[in-house]
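ok so i was messing around last nite and threw this chain in just to see what happens. nothing serious, just curious
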Amino acid sequence: MRFVTSCFLVVLLACGAAGCVEEQVNYKVDMVAPSEFLLGPEDVLVVTVWKNQDLSREVAIRPDGMISMPLIGDVPAANLTANSLAKRIADRLTEYMASPIVSVQLKEVNSYFIYVLGEVPKPGKYSLKSYANVMQGISLGGGFTPFAKKNQIKVLRATSEGASVKHQIEIPVHYDDIVKGHAAVGNFYLRSGDVIVVP
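result:
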């Protein structure tokens, strides 16, 4: 996914139940909405192979991140853009036809969701059709309760370091500084699975 503007933040990796040493890492937050959407499980796609109706079809990305296509079988689709997936399908089809032209359209977004928890009137999981930033996420939760500590908000995010190794990081959010326009991090865009925690 390409980002127009980003900034880097030093955060601490959260420790697991067995205990661990806290580690400082540089992490990028996205200050402008991504220009292309990253596909994910349950997204519905329309795959069109030019001049080949038998290979063109509507497909949903499975929970394992794959789609099934005639001739070429399973194709990894999760965490790709539609254009990248179209190229991958075309590359696979070259084994069976000359110079295939493939397009992929995102028909239905089902993979993008966030959680808003803690001192908000409407805590819960929110499935969205477009990218949301921190302030929009808080708004979905109904704002703040009278007991909310607005300047101690955290965004929890799972990050991967390889095929299966995951860590959780905490990104601090200072609400008053965002409102005044001089926050160190700013009103960054959320990634699917992010959890906004308002203590």
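not much to say yet. Residues 120 and 143 are 6 Å apart (CA to CA).
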